[in-house]
Amino acid sequence: MTHDKSLRRPNVLLNALSPSTLSDPAVADVKLGNPCNEGDLPCQIRLPVRNFLALKYEVNNDEAACLLPETAEFWGRIQYLDGGDMMVGADTVTAEGKEQGRDRAYIKFYHAVDKYRRNQRKTPEMERRDSHGQLCRIVRLSVNLSNVPELDSDDVDHLTVAIVRSVKWEMRNPGPMPFFQSGEFSPLLAVDIDDLRCLVGRTPDYRPHQPRWEARYRRPDVMDDGFHN
After folding, report:
1. Is pLDDT above 70 for 14?
2. pLDDT exceeds cutoff 60 at 226
3. What pLDDT does residue 82 have?
4. Which positions ≥6 away from 193 have C-beta within 8 Å?
5. What torsion, rounded to 10 degrees, do the Cα atoms 174, 170, 201, 113 define?
6. Whole-number Å distance between alpha carbons of 173 and 186
7. Cα(105)–Cα(85) distance, rounded to whole angstroms?
8. What is the pLDDT of residue 194?
9. How many CB atoms lie within 10 A of CB 173?
10. What is the mean pLDDT of the chain?
11. Is the dihedral of CA 138, 139, 145, 150 positive or negative?
């Protein structure tokens, strides 16, 4: 996989393709959309990206930290070209657009979870689970594998990851559609963009002391792959 240097001039490339979109050469059948900018990797997402790299390359946390680039590209929208939902990063929605874009930030996604995370005596064993949360932004970064000699590679990998934060579910969820607590999120995660599933709509459940939202799928077919794992 080669790096497209024209990505360093996003406005030029955007204008060449369409007013506001970019087909990602690193991932098949994916379209990224504005807003787009390039800058330093923010402190608040360095930890989730480091954890993602540690899992991907099977290295320890210190080695994964050596793989972190200083800069990255940040995109606000993503859509799969086979008719998938347009998902919008909550961090990139302006104050004027929050009302229109708010629902398009809540998604279903997959991520790796240690099935023995509550028992530190057991060897970690990762398993793939589905989850629900809010898409924050899309990050494209270049990873220089030569920074970790143990990987024995001089390649530079170009990755596209989604920064998400999981919602916190109600302990007891009546009916087929679950409820999650209003404004309650888990720490940030970085996941591969291939692991984004679909948009999740929200219906407010008005309670006087503990407001919450009910999750509702806009596309019923996504219920087929195990909803409450």
Report:
1. no
2. no
3. 72
4. 27, 30, 78, 138, 160, 161, 162
5. -120
6. 18
7. 11
8. 85
9. 15
10. 73
11. negative
Q: What pLDDT score was predicted for residue 219?
A: 46
What digits encode the pLDDT tens for the residues 168-196? Answer: 766 555 555 566 666 678 889 999 988 88
- What is the distance of C-alpha 28 from the center of its chain? 17
Q: Is the pLDDT of residue 27 over 70?
A: no
Helix, strand or coil for residue 193? helix
Question: Which segments within the chain are labelled E, that is strand?
Answer: 21-23, 30-40, 71-80, 86-88, 106-114, 126-144, 156-169, 179-192, 196-205, 212-217
* Structure token pair of residue 34: 């504005």
Q: How far apart are CA 72 and CA 124, in angstroms?
A: 30
Q: Global pTM?
A: 0.74
Token pair 């086979």: residue: 82
218: left (phi over 0), alpha (psi -120 to 50) or beta: alpha
Identify residue 2 by its one-letter amino acid code: T
Please tell me the distance from the alpha carbon of residue 120 to that of residue 27, in angstroms, as a whole number: 36
DSSP codes, 48-112: HHHHHHHHHHT--HHHHHHH--SEEEEEEEEEETTTPPEEE-GGG--TTTHHHHSGGGEEEEEEE
3-state secondary structure at position 139: strand
Cβ contact 44:163 at 8 Å: no
Name the token pair of 116.
Answer: 């023995």
Backbone region of residue 213 per phi and psi (left: phi > 0; alpha: psi in -120 to 50; beta: other values): beta
Q: Residue range 54-60: average pLDDT?
A: 92
